[in-house]
Amino acid sequence: xxxxxxxxAKTKSILELTLKTxxxxxxxxxxxxxxxxxxxxxxxxxxxxxxxxxxxxxIQSSIIGKFDSDExxxxxxxxxxxxxxxxxxxxxxxxIAFAENVKNILNGLPPFFKVTLTAAEMKNSLTDAGFEINxxxxxxxxxxxxxxxxEILKDDAAVFMxxxxxxxxxxxxxxxxxxxxxxxxxxxxxRVHAPNAFFKKEQALSVVWQTMEKPFVPIEGNxxxxxxxxxxxxxxxxxxxxxxxKMANEAGYxxxxxxxxxxxxxxxxxxxTAWINFVGTHAIQTSTNYLADYLRQYNPTVKVFANHLPxxxxxxxxxxxxxxxxxxVTILFAALNRDKDFLELxxxxxKFAKEYGDxxxxxxxxxxxxxxxxxxxxxxxxGDLDYYDGQFVSYERYENALxxxxxxxxxxxxxxxxxxxxxxxxxxxxGHGTVALASPVVYSGVIEEGKTGFIYRxxxxxxxxxxxxxxxxxxxxxxxxxxxxxxxxxxxxxxHYMERLDWYSELYAKLPELRAxxxxxxxxxxxxxxxxxxxxxxxxxxxxxxx
Length: 547
Prior knowledge:
Blueprint: E1 13-17, H1 27-35, E2 40-44, E3 54-59, H2 61-64, H3 69-80, E4 83-94, H4 99-106, H5 119-128, E5 132-140, H6 147-153, E6 159-167, E7 175-181, H7 188-199, E8 205-211, E9 225-231, H8 238-250, E10 254-259, H9 267-272, H10 276-279, E11 283-286, H11 289-295, E12 302-304, H12 318-322, E13 329-333, H13 339-343, H14 346-356, E14 360-365, H15 368-373, E15 379-382, H16 395-403, E16 407-410, H17 416-419, H18 424-432, E17 435-438, H19 440-443, E18 454-455, H20 459-471, H21 473-490, H22 497-509, H23 511-530
Parallel strand pairs: 1-2, 1-3, 3-4, 7-8, 7-9, 9-10, 10-11, 11-12, 13-14, 13-16, 14-15, 16-17, 17-18
Antiparallel strand pairs: 4-6, 5-6
Helix pairs in contact: 3-5, 18-21
């Protein structure tokens, strides 16, 4: 078992204590370095031989499982001396009462886990050693046991590992982030679930999310900061939105709208509800400067959080690929809502297909109609017609297609909707070693021409640069490796997610001011929206906000 999901992603120094005989020795390090490549991650079998202090100390069961309570308490005190202020210790202890363990012991076989310390003893000893326990979790699996054993072990039979996170002093402010998701398939994975996964690793921070199908119910608890994020929500009526925002206000939430696409797609709904999605919140977070400028007409408090990769893919093995001189150059098109942009390039691509024959291979992702228009047998469709009629694929399949391709075409015509898009496609190309050939819309602001990718401004440039890339594998490799390094040092979520939490805290400190401003915007919208209709204006001329 690996423990990268328990380590705060911003961590730059880690000590893992484990025996080299442990089954997954170095497994956690490799997985965590994909999240935070800048971390100095040390592994040792002996705490006494380690010098320096660390933000995180991870202790595997192979080190502590044989201790008794007193021995573990003394060990925990020594661990505390190796932790930097504000750092954490993560203790992983195999469960002596795990069903397979007990089965072996009762049958006279060697125990499944060679531990003597129990979870209760570990927690008590940690407290005695001066630690405060922040989180205590159980890792379980499905097991089948004899009825008598099940009665003896009760709930612990399926637990194979106890994981405890502890600090010398817990943070004084406990935070809550509560998100309601309006769009679950395309945007939520990167804009909600990925940052939430990073937030959950932070201490004294609770994360809750739900879809719009379930009613919004404020979370109770002793939270110093409560953040409500409405991701691409749409409301049936203006009154529905006002009721929800009023409920969130009364529960002590800071309300933030998350929007990473141009609202033009849903303009009719927004107009019918007086743009209350953005007017009624205290702030807006979005993915591009272009969108931020557009959204400020509805709410002046807007922050840009660009899209980043949650993990750094392993470097691409170009040496292995280049060993095959007959390997065709693979050109990929993989994007949503860009079919018209691609069609303008189709005649050129068909000419290239005819000219280069089996030296070229085309991959089309989730666009079966476009796939059929490529006039060559040297092509493959990435998708499943039984899954959303082939219009979507899993992110894993998309990543695999990128990694198997040499050139990715990123066309975006210059229009209002496309200008609002993020540069994520280029970042994904860089992470997987695929050279981007892109339009200047969006991408000219991030691609360094000829170094991290290529920009084409007309059909002539597209032809020239595509031909150059096909015929120059060495340059493709050079550009791909430079783009990979750009992503590694600049576009990983671990490098940026704390900016969100810091901004939320800054806003929360100004909550009374932000609430007053939001109330004023709602009143203005209500007056304009209702056109002073009966039942919405009070006797003294004040606006009556729906509840």
